[in-house]
Amino acid sequence: MQALWMVLASFFFATMAVGIKVASSSFSLPELVFYRGLVSVIFMVLVLRARGTPLATPVPMMHAWRAVIGIFSLAAWFYAIAHLPLATAMTLNYMSGVWVAAFVVGGALMYGKGSRQGALMATVLAGFAGVVMMLRPTLDQNQLFAGLVGLLSGMGAAMAYMQVTALGKVGEPEGRTVFYFAFSTALVGLVGVLWDGFTPWTSVSWQAAAWLIPIGVLASLGQWAMTRAFSRGATLLVANLQYAGIVFAAFYSLFLFGDQIAPMGWAGMALIVASGVAGTVLRTRALPDTPAEEH
Description:
The protein is mainly alpha-helical. The chain is built from 13 helices and no strands.
């Protein structure tokens, strides 16, 4: 039952994506990154204080590298959400599981052990075939760039995924890892906003403004539920339950935004999910007990 926390986390992340899509009609990308980080910082400070967890860390450079990768992935994902059907953007971000499998295969090839990774390589190829199926029928030519950015968000999430794993192995508390990522997100977003300027509140719709606080809270709740799932549930089951986020995003995409996705696009999503699940099962031999990505 503890693994079901991952389903709740997926729900929080998908709902956060709805907020990003609505808020993107009034706010710039740097503003969205800033507000998401600022609210999460406040939320996590309260959580850490309640738990008595100190903010000082013995591995600041690991947090810095995790922040660089994670902010790139986050910004790319937000951009994809703003310019693509919600279900498409969500699926591209969840390609991170396939990207991790690709990294494992690449490492095996470098060390001359590629022949042992044939099954894993097949899941990687199937995952990218799913991307082709999903993008070609669902995206207009003017959305192709956003599709490529969304694909890069998944690659960045995969790299952040492995960095979070490294932080866990050196004993960093999950809450502190979430806090430093939120702090870095707010800082980078603020730099971008100071460069580009804040959107005048007279130009902001009330729907967009209403989502600013929920976006940060949902992100923090999603990370908390995800951490709880991985700390108390079966790792393999939890890792695969994260794909429930695509189901929630598809529901929102259809019923809230009226997005139209061709049958081949749905088939591509299904192939990506199947590839991610298969890749997770196979790569547990090389990367056991890995935590999930953070959004």
